[in-house]
Amino acid sequence: MRTSLLNVSRIRRKRESSKYRGVSHTRSGTYKAQLCINGDILYLGTFEFELEAAIAHDKASEQYFHEHAKLNFAKESRLDVIDSIHHLKELKKEFE
After folding, report:
1. Computed from CA positions of residues 78, 84, 89, 90, in that sequence, does the dihedral angle turn out positive or negative?
2. What is the pLDDT of residue 38?
3. What distances in angstroms separate CA 13 from CA 16, 24, 47, 55, one per listed residue?
4. Can you tell me whether residue 37 is helix, strand or coil?
5. Predicted TM-score of the model (pTM)
6. What is the pLDDT of residue 81?
7. What is the rounded CA–CA span in Å between residue 32 and residue 48?
8. CATH architecture of the region 2-95
9. Start-to-end CA span in the chain (Å)
10. How many C-beta neighbours within 10 Å does residue 52 have?
11. How many distinct helices (H) and strands (E) make up the chain?
12. What is residue 6's predicted lDDT score, i.e. its pLDDT?
């Protein structure tokens, strides 16, 4: 019985995880971003796209940790990611 509970726990964690640091999938289908600062969790918001949450995490991480920030995207590629987000939003509007 205990083994099956552990398996359910792992499945749940897998579904809620993201490939980006500080980002997790919510039950409502959105993505939340958060940042851990000295053991405290700073909630950054809920976002429609995973990339948006990852960018929010990076911006907050830079603000608090400066050059020691652990980022999802290099500063040089961040504008490309933001362009991708705008493109995703436009595509979504076309299919609604």
Report:
1. positive
2. 93
3. 5, 9, 19, 22
4. strand
5. 0.75
6. 86
7. 9
8. 2-Layer Sandwich (3.30)
9. 45
10. 21
11. 3, 3
12. 53
Compute the Cα dihedral for 70, 75, 77, 83 and give only its sign.
positive
Task: Name the residue type at position 50.
Answer: E
- Give the 3-state DSSP-derived string for 19-42, with helices as H, strands as E and coil as C: CCCCEEECCCCCEEEEEEECCEEE
Q: What pLDDT, in 10s, does the model give residues 22-37?
A: 999 999 999 999 999 9
Q: What is the pLDDT of residues 64-85, one digit of tens each?
A: 999 999 999 998 888 888 888 8
Task: Let me know: does 21 contact 51? Beta carbons within 8 Å.
Answer: no
* H or E element at residue 31: strand 31-37
Query: Is-contact 58 78, C-beta < 8 A?
Result: yes
Which ranges of 27-77 does DSSP label H, i.e. alpha helix? 50-65
Closest CA to 47 of 93, 94, 85: 85
Q: Hey, what are 84's tokens?
A: 């991708």
